[in-house]
Amino acid sequence: MTMTSVTVRVDDATKKQATDIVEDLGLDLSSVTRAFYRQIVRENRIPLSLSRQPIPAETLDALDEVREKAETWR
Length: 74
Fold this sequence. Notes:
single chain, 74 residues, mainly alpha, 3 helices, 61% helix, Arc_rbn_hlx_hlx
């Protein structure tokens, strides 16, 4: 299968935010773009809804606590 490149122009802030989200899902922007194209072809429409779940407040609090303790250990 022959591959081709696609260039997308987007502002830095949007790219950073999108990168953060897809990396939280264990992916990269290229993989998501390929999946998006394949799904468009497969479903003959513009689909694809990927989302990440918000981190619970308790988890964020625990992470903050660990960071604070780690600072005292240095």
